[in-house]
Amino acid sequence: xxxxxxxxxxxxxxxxxxxxxxxxxxxxxxxxxxxxxxxxxxxxxxxxxxxxxxxxxxxxxxxxxxxxxxxxxxxxxxxxxxxxxxxxxxxxxxxxxxxxxxxxxxxxxxxxxxxxxxxxxxxxxxxxxxxxxxxxxxxxxxxxxxxxxxxxxxxxxxxxxxxxxxxxxxxxxxxxxxxxxxxxxxxxxxxxxxx
Length: 195
What we know:
Number of strands: 2
Helix content: 55-70%
Distance between the termini: 46 Å
Strand content: under 5%
Structural class: mainly alpha
Strand order of the largest sheet: 1-2
Order of helices and strands: HHHHHHEEHH
Largest sheet: 2 strands, parallel
Number of domains: 1
Shape: globular
Radius of gyration: 19 Å
């Protein structure tokens, strides 16, 4: 029961942060995607970079058990699904997580988005055997692989670089890009940001 309670507390805190940075507002998502306001992109890059540095440094220090790391198998369907998710995110202004947060804040368009997502999941389940027969779900690049081998993990690295060092380096690169990225790349100054 305590793990469920902890998950609810962490989920609520994460949702509050998503709402606070504007990720539950489809207008902010649209401005990020058309490069007129990159505040949200900078925040996402900073969060991913910080999480990566903390996770891999914690693993190296013995504070994070690599046994809890879960790597999903690589297959062509993941890339196809990623493209479909990106298109849906751009069209709707929500990804599954931000859609839930927006629905919790009372946005009715988010409820329609969530209903569409559930219908899409049901359609995938109903057509799963046919999708599997296409070969989209066959493992590629050895299946469960990482960019570099992490000591104590069971996953192979596609490079000879140490995975924990690579994870920290990539995390630091994301942090640097987050700080160097301008507030906007295209378009007129954002009148909301100027106020």
